[in-house]
Amino acid sequence: MSYWQAILLGLVQGLTEFLPISSSGHLVLTNFLLGVSNDTIVFEISVHLGSLMAVLVYFRKDLTKVVVDFFRGGEGRWIGWMLILAMVPTAIIGLGFKDFFESIFHAPRYASIGLLFTSLVLFAAEKMKRGERTLEKTRWKDALLIGTLQGLAIMPGVSRSGSTIAAGLFAGLTRDTAARFSFLLSIPAILGAAVVTAKDFVSIQPGLAGPSVVGAIAAGISGYIAIGLLMRIIRNGKLYVFVAYTLVVGVLGLVLLP
Predict the structure, then answer these.
(1) Which of 16, 8, 7, 1 minimizes the C-alpha distance to 156?
(2) Distance of CA 86 to CAs 67, 81, 115, 140, Å?
(3) Which of 56, 64, 178, 247 is deepest in the core (most CB within 10 A)?
(4) Does the pLDDT at position 206 exceed 70?
C-alpha cells in the first residue's frame, strides 16, 4: 500500500464512519477500485482508531460529563448505563455471527446490498414524527434497540451511524439526541473492535506501519469534519441526501461489481 492510497483510504474512512453512508462498505469498494489487498486488517484498525480520536475531541464535554457523573453520581450516570446496555446486543450479534460477517466482509456485492439496507432504514427514519425525549431521558428499551441496530451494522455496507441514529429516531429521541447517543456509542464499539483484533498488530506486515499512521491521521481529520457536518444536517432534517446517495451507490455496486 502506498502513502497516497493510505491517505485516500483514511479520508474515506473518516468521512464515511460518521456520515450515514457506511465506512465498511466504502472501504470494501474503494479497496477493490484501487486494487489494494484485502489482507490489511492492521490498516483498517488504525484508521478506525483515527476516526475514534475525532469523536473523543468533538464530544469531549459530553464524554467528560458522562464519565465524571458515572462515578460521582448525576444525570450522566444514567447515560453511561444506557451506553453500556446498548453494547450488550451489539456484542451478542458481533460475537455470535463473527465468522459469517468476516466471510463476507470484503465482498463488493454484500457491501452493495448493505448500502441499500442503509438507504431503506434512513428513509424510514426520516418519515418518523419528530421525537421530544432528550439524552437524559433515554429508556432502557431505547438503548437495546439502538444497540441491536448497531450490531447489524457489522455487515459491510450497513452504516453504523445511520443505523443507530435511525434507531434513536424510531425510539422517539430528538434528532440531536439520537445523533449524540450514536456518536458516544461509537467509542466503546470502535475500542471493542480494536481490542478483539489487537493480536494482528503483533504481526504487522512489513512496510504497512507508515501508511497505517498516515491513514489514521487522515481519518481523524476527515472524521472531525464529518461529525460537524452531520450534526448540522441532522438538526435541519436533511437525511434524504444520504438516502439517495446510498441507494445510487448500492445499485451501481450491484450492477457494475462482481
Answers:
(1) 16
(2) 16, 9, 23, 8
(3) 178
(4) no
